[in-house]
Design brief:
- It is a single chain.
- By secondary structure, this protein is mostly helical.
- It has one domain.
- It is rod-shaped.
- It starts with a helix and ends with a helix.
């Protein structure tokens, strides 16, 4: 009877030890999962911010291309315009 009591007590101690270790591991895994979820949320926010910036820059590029198309004819005639202005100032002097 004494050995049976000792064996049962020994098994309970093992179960308590196993349960305690398992609980510690579980809490550690939960903490790791929470940290990974936080990192994922931060990464998702960064991705969204970069996407917004990309869209803003794309719109700005489109605007600049439109301005460039509007200025192109004037740039092509810049030499003639400068020549005529120089000639006009010489005539007026």
């Amino acid at each position: 009877m004494l050995t049976l009591h000792f064996n049962i007590q020994f098994h309970y101690r093992q179960l308590i030890h196993f349960g305690t270790n398992t609980l510690v591991k579980l809490y550690g895994e939960r903490r790791n999962a929470y940290e990974h979820e936080e990192k994922a949320r931060k990464a998702e926010k960064n991705v969204q911010e970069v996407a917004r910036q990309n869209e803003t820059l794309s719109r700005r590029v489109t605007q600049l291309e439109q301005c460039e198309r509007e200025l192109k004819p004037w740039k092509e005639r810049e030499g003639k315009i400068t020549h005529y202005l120089n000639t006009f100032t010489k005539v007026m002097a």
